Amino acid sequence: MPRWVVLLQFAFLVGCTSGTTKVVRLDTGQGGPIVHVPRRDMKTVDVGDDAFRKSVAKHARTVPTPARPLVHARQLFGVPEHSGWYRYERKSRRLLPLEAGNELKVALSPADAELNRLYFLWCGRAWGSPPGDCLRLLVDSPVLEGDGKYALAMAIAQGAVLGELKTAFGEMVSPEAVAAALVGAMTTYLLLWMLPEPISKGVAALMTVGMVSYLGWDMLWKLIDGWRVLVAKVERATTFEEIRAAGEQFAKVMGDKAAKAFVMLAMLAVGNTAAGMAAKMPTLPGAGQAAVVAEAQLIRYSAAALAEVESVAINAEGAVVVLAPNAVAMTARASGGAGSSAKAGFRSFKSMRDFKNAMGPAGEGKNWHQTSGNIERFGPDALHNTENAIAIDSQLHKQISAFYSSKQELTDNRVVREWLRGKSYEEQRDFGLMILRRFGVSP
């Protein structure tokens, strides 16, 4: 019996509906879960082109460049293969997965050959290099099929950001290999949500928390819905133009902000363990604003808090975030009433003048005090908001301001303000709350 090939496909059984009200449940392992209805009017984090390129250049060298990026990503995220090429072994009467390096001689149909040709040409145009398999999608298969087609659609959707990557990668030996690893990671991460019982763990869970922190829950659900549409269209696609159209439609759903956040988080995911990723996420551009969005969405965006995330599950009702046993950092503020009226009334402004115009005077004999600073690093939304400002006695405000202008032993005899400048948003906020308590203010 001659060797032959079959293509196996899994059915995608899960979906989200954007029209229904969803809730987020934070399972702390201590009593019942904290239930929260996410706000749908959160401002997403806007990362500038220059900051994005610098971040990509910084982390690109830690990204592995596997010969089989989709296989590597599936192993990283724990996602089973949705399709694959197999050979029939006559002696054992078994179907064996085709491994890298095995020869497979298949007569390509004219349609498959044309799809491969146009994919190669796209690679040449995208990277300004000779046509070829730039995303390494044909390493194990002679035909662009299954997950490979989804990856191509993802790369097309990220076309504008890939242009930024070319500039950021600079003189790297193989920028295409890094891009292939990132595209493989982003594709596989979204395929994770197509499984019958979708749940993310490890670096995948941190990617989910990161996406929520930069974009909000509502936008994440829209991305999943948009990806479901892409998958359905690519499943039926037989031409490059059909795949291109699906990718371009998803690009419109994603937008520039989500595209950049997705790439930055994927870069950390493929180059780190979960612990390493948790430590680096608060250092990404826009992390200060992301921390504000995260707290309004029931999570905290600090290295300690992120390290406590055990899993994130998506279901028809919303999402469930499960924390590691005895988690403390993630729930430090949520235990005081996440989803309360204060959270529901969260507002941010472009300037302190706008804040005061909207919120009014702090009160007789009082001043507005901000617990975190550094507008240059974190942006106005992270500072001029109802979670970062508190009304305190004006005389007490003068004393606290004087403290920040003084040199202290706890800051290694440096001026407190200057010492804080290099700290993360969460570190500055925690320090600010500690100082308020020291001066007798209950934040």
Description:
By secondary structure, the chain is an alpha+beta fold. It has two domains: 5-336, no CATH class; 347-438, no CATH class. Helices cover 48% and strands 11% of the residues. The chain contains 19 helices and twelve strands. A five-stranded mixed sheet has the order 3-2-8-7-6, covered by helices on one side. Strand 7 (309-315) and strand 8 (318-323) form a beta hairpin. Helix 1 crosses helix 5. It is elongated and about 85 Å long. The termini are far apart. It comes from Hyalangium rubrum. This is Lipoprotein.
Structure, briefly:
By secondary structure, the chain is α+β, with helices and mostly antiparallel strands. It has helices at 49-59, 69-77, 110-127, 147-157, 159-169, 175-192, 202-215, 217-236, 240-270, 274-280, 287-296, 303-306, 341-344, 352-359, 375-378, 380-383, 394-404, 416-420, 425-438; strands spanning 5-7, 23-27, 34-36, 85-89, 94-97, 199-201, 309-315, 318-323, 366-370, 389-393, 407-408, 414-415.
Average pLDDT taken over every residue: 80
Count the beta strands. Answer: 12
What is the terminal-to-terminal distance? 77 Å
Percentage of residues in helical conformation: 40-55%
* Percent of sequence in beta strands: 5-15%
Protein name: Lipoprotein
Q: Helices and strands in order, then pairings?
A:
Elements: E1 5-7, E2 23-27, E3 34-36, H1 49-59, H2 69-77, E4 85-89, E5 94-97, H3 110-127, H4 147-157, H5 159-169, H6 175-192, E6 199-201, H7 202-215, H8 217-236, H9 240-270, H10 274-280, H11 287-296, H12 303-306, E7 309-315, E8 318-323, H13 341-344, H14 352-359, E9 366-370, H15 375-378, H16 380-383, E10 389-393, H17 394-404, E11 407-408, E12 414-415, H18 416-420, H19 425-438
Parallel strand pairs: 2-8
Antiparallel strand pairs: 1-4, 2-3, 4-5, 6-7, 7-8, 9-10, 11-12
